[in-house]
Amino acid sequence: QVRLVESGGGLAQPGGSLRLSCVASGFAFSGYDMQWWRASAPGQIREYVAIIDGAGTYTNYAASVKGRFTISRDNAKNTVYLQMNNLQPEDTAIYYCNNLKYYGQGTQVTVSS
Fold it and tell me: What is the mean pLDDT of residues 35-41?
């Protein structure tokens, strides 16, 4: 079955960086666009963060993260990444990866001094 497992979350100071990873299994990873979403708490409405196409040649970002976050993927490792730089308190959220149908369980990112 489809499985998406996020990791890399944690506590960061304002201006700091984190890199999230999402390991995928159960589907033909390289054929799927992958997205990152975030939500303030479990069960809350998710906010779109970024998308990358299957080949890794097209990316798009929400205005709130553009210029600070970078989405990338390694199809040999069935993994999508989210490099987050210059983190701000408003980036505090649970971050989820998504293959346009399924979500992972999420990883918590907290930005605080």
Answer: 96
